[in-house]
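Order emerges. As here.
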Amino acid sequence: MANERTEAIVCAGAFLIELARDRTLPLKVRQRAATIARHFPTIEDVSSMAYTSETSVCAVKFSQPAESSHSSFAHGPLRESTRLGWPSAE
């Protein structure tokens, strides 16, 4: 369903932020999460895809993201304004 697909994408983006910023994880895992997050759809991208899917017959369907879907993540959803520094051993 469109709302479940949307929630999965938004939560996955938020999870990538959590992984990239969690200093208890191995450096390689944090760096991989940061790399993936750079190319992962932001919440603004998902909103745009939801709008496009409303007007297209062939598009994969998305719904507008709900604020509650990512409230359990400390750093919130992945946004265009999210700045993830490259994780280092320090």
About this structure: The two ends are 42 Å apart (CA to CA). The longest helix spans residues 2-21. The mean pLDDT is 86.
